[in-house]
Design a protein that fits this description.
alpha+beta, 9-stranded mixed sheet, globular
Length: about 160
């Protein structure tokens, strides 16, 4: 489901990539525009994976576009961040992917509300600038319709 009708923001949040790089989101994002798959549950990785081919192709096609995966995890798990991030990093052999996977241990409700999501049962795929202004958002696994809408939004 593609959602474009209201102003949405990626709020300020401290995060860390699986390669250890610290981020203050959204200002530290590397692109003028940033394409991010925001996941809320461990089982969301399958849905994220459906988008990764599009992410790679679009990053190649659009100068200034950077792509990320953002597992968003309740701050109550912060004490075991090292273990959880370590398991995720071990499952990702590619250094570039580890560098683009940024975990946020935070108030998940704040992220959900700021993005205007109805819940956290699906991933959110967003395009935002370094101010966090979201110009495009879709929920759930990739569909041809959502991928075409994303491509149109990036070309428009």
């Amino acid at each position: 489901m593609v959602m474009n009708e209201k102003i949405r923001l990626l709020p300020a949040v401290e995060a860390r990539a699986l390669d250890g790089t610290e981020y203050r989101l959204p200002s530290d994002l590397g692109g003028e525009r940033n394409l991010i798959a925001v996941a809320f549950e461990r089982n969301h990785q399958d849905d994220v994976d459906t988008w990764l081919g599009d992410f790679a192709a679009l990053e190649d096609e659009h100068t200034g576009l950077m792509t990320y995966e953002m597992p968003t995890i309740s701050r109550r798990f912060s004490p075991v961040r090292g273990v959880l991030d370590g398991k995720m990093a071990d499952a990702i052999p590619d250094p570039k992917t580890r560098a683009r996977t940024i975990t946020a241990y935070t108030d998940v409700g704040r992220i959900r509300d700021s993005l205007g999501l109805p819940d956290t049962k699906q991933i959110a795929v967003i395009v935002c600038d370094r101010d966090g202004v979201v110009s495009w958002l879709a929920l759930g696994e990739r569909s041809d319709e959502a991928a075409a809408d994303l491509r149109a939004a990036l070309n428009g």
